[in-house]
Amino acid sequence: MNIVPDKFVYLNVSQATSIARIRQNCTEINNALYGQELENTAQSLYREFEVNHGEVFKTFEKFIYNYDCSEKQQQDVANDLARMLRVRFRNGAPRRPPKVILVGPPGSGRTA
């Protein structure tokens, strides 16, 4: 069975912001990780995303909504996305839960 999303949202953050958030998340999980090892891990996670996201963007480029969240707080992003999903179409069809795919680099806030 195929699932077609209603929205395809790319949470866009700068590379520096993403790497800083990756470092923060890594230290919360494992506080023994620090220094060059932490930096290498963060860089590696970001590079892995860059390698894999290219094909996704080529495939879905006409359907992706680019949402810049680099300078926004996590709660503001969540509120904006919730507001976007509450938009009702005027066709009289019954409401169904929206199908949304969130894509973004590590540390962009997809899991929040």
Write the layout of secondary structure elements.
Elements (H helix, E strand, L loop, with lengths): L6 E6 L2 H15 L5 H26 L3 E5 L5 H12 L14 E4 L9
Parallel strand pairs: 1-2, 1-3
Helix pairs in contact: 1-2
User: How would you spell out the order of helices and strands?
Assistant: EHHEHE
By DSSP, the count of extended strands is 3
Shape: elongated
Biggest sheet descriptor: 3 strands, parallel
> Percent range for helical residues?
40-55%
Instruction: Order the strands across the largest sheet as they lie in space.
Output: 2-1-3
Low-confidence stretches: none
Structural class: alpha/beta
Q: What fraction of residues sit in β-strands?
A: 5-15%
Count of helix runs: 3
Termini separation comes to 28 Å
How many structural domains are formed by the residues? 1
Rg on CA atoms, Å: 17 Å
Mean pLDDT: 81
Structure description:
- The structure is a single chain.
- The chain is α/β, with parallel strands linked by helices and 112 residues long.
- The protein has one domain.
- The protein contains three helices and three strands; from the N terminus they run E-H-H-E-H-E.
- A three-stranded parallel sheet has the order 2-1-3, with no helix packed on it.
- The longest helix is centred in the middle third of the chain and has 26 residues.
- The mean pLDDT is 81.
